[in-house]
Structures are given as structure tokens and as C-alpha cells.
Amino acid sequence: MNTNDQPNTLLEVKDLCVAYGQVEALSNASLRVGEGQIVTVIGPNGAGKTTLLSAIIGMLGSRGQVRFDGTLETVPEVEVLVGRGLGLVPEKRELFGSMSVEDNLRLGGFMRYRRGDAYLDGTLAEIYSLFPRLFERRKQLAATLSGGERQMLAVGRALMAKPKLLMLDEPSLGLAPLITREIFRIIADLRRQGVSILLVEQNARAALRVADYAYVLETGQIAMQGPAHELADDPRVIEAYLGLASKHQEMLAT
Ligand SMILES: Nc1ncnc2c1ncn2[C@@H]1O[C@H](COP(=O)(O)OP(=O)(O)OP(=O)(O)O)[C@@H](O)[C@H]1O
Ligand SMILES: [Mg+2]
Asked: What is the pTM of this model?
């Protein structure tokens, strides 16, 4: 049963299944993202989180239903979904290393450019104000950026397409706590600007803090779901994903 039924539905996934050969990596996964929401999917390594995002955007074959912005995608196709406003920051950031930061950003707006959208420079300016670091480094080659800067560039590039829904695959992966905090601050800012977000994370604590609604994915199945603040207080989630030690530390800190 899916109980995340607050605002208008932007993305609805029903009974999505993905198999790699004989091995089913995703089994009947169902989820919903409402307009203006941040929804998170947390779960351990190998749970199927990346598989889920890849299948939703049509990079992987799947069975089941994906309905985005009111239209049912019987066979999700990347170009179609991106054209209709779905964005993905993939786990492997896939930047163009030998191109500058600014050229990477401009490429992110390519589909809009092709449609004759004249506001690309405006969007670029918005992204630079969201990530001043990218403005400082706009002439630098993407390959020479630090991990945190690469992550900012990957998010910025996806934003150049003006997505209605941005899917982020582990934006805090490998980042130091300060940069992680910065990334989560930007995620909260984006929501305030009206971008809906589907956030996949192993950093359950930070994800549950920023999200409205959360799903726990374990071995390819949605094992739990609920409002993020409720899941954060659920003893099963605390034990498996938040850790008693860190809970204790948080109590000591307050
Ligand atoms: N191309 C592939 N061929 C075969 N098995 C795959 C393939 N891609 C992923 N898998 C397997 O499917 C399962 C789910 O992988 P997936 O990458 O979706 O997990 P994940 O939740 O994103 O993990 P992580 O947190 O480590 O990124 C894993 O057991 C993985 O080994
Ligand atoms: Mg992954």
C-alpha cells in the first residue's frame, strides 16, 4: 500500500521489476513523488537503488508502470523522459573531463537550446548563484575538479535542463561532512524553488532530515515507507540505518 498521497502526483511507479539475467534486482517496487516534495529512497549497498533510478528514466529495461507528469510510459525512454522534464544525476557523474565547467553546464541545457529556449544564460546565472564555487572555477577543466566540485557540477548540469523532477543518486557519496552539508542545503533550496526531488542515499540520517517522505529499499523490495520524520523515529530504521551510537551522540549534543 502506498500512503504518500499528499500533493498532486508527479511521478508514480507501480510494480517495477528489473532482472539482470536470472537475478531479479528490483521486485515490484512502487513509489510516488508529489509535486514540490523531496522523497528519499534509502537502503544498503546492492539494495537496487541505482537500478531503480536507471529503470525509471529508461536506461534499463523493466516491467511495471512508470507514470511521469500525467503520462503513462509503457516503455520508458531516456530522451522522451528527459524532454518531458525528468532529470538524473547518475552515480557515476559522467562529466566531460576535457571540457570546462561552463561548457559542461551548457551541454546540460542542450535540449532547451535545440528547442530555441532563449533563457539559457539566465539559468546559467541562477546556477552560479546557487554554486558560487562553480562560477569561480568556470574555466577549469571538469577532470581537475575536486570530488565535491564534481558533484556540484553534476547537479548544476542537470539543473540546466530545468527539470520538473530531479533524481539524485547518492549526492553525498565520498564527500566530507562539510561538503555533504552544503549539498543537502542546496537540495532544500531547490525544493523551495519548486523542483521536486527523488533522492537516493546511503546517508540515511541526512536524507531523512531533508525529505518529506521516505522508502526503505532492501534486496530489491520496498521494505518500509512513511513520512520521513516518522521513519527517523522507527526503532527498526534506527537500528539498521541510523545506529544507536550516533543516536546517543546526538542526544549528548543536545
Ligand atoms: N549490470 C549488472 N549486471 C548484473 N548485476 C548487476 C548489474 N548492475 C547491478 N547489478 C546487481 O544488482 C544489485 C543492485 O545493484 P544497484 O547498483 O542497483 O544497488 P545500489 O542500491 O545502488 O547499491 P550502492 O548503494 O552500492 O550504489 C546488486 O546486487 C548488483 O550487483
Ligand atoms: Mg547505487
From this structure: 0.90
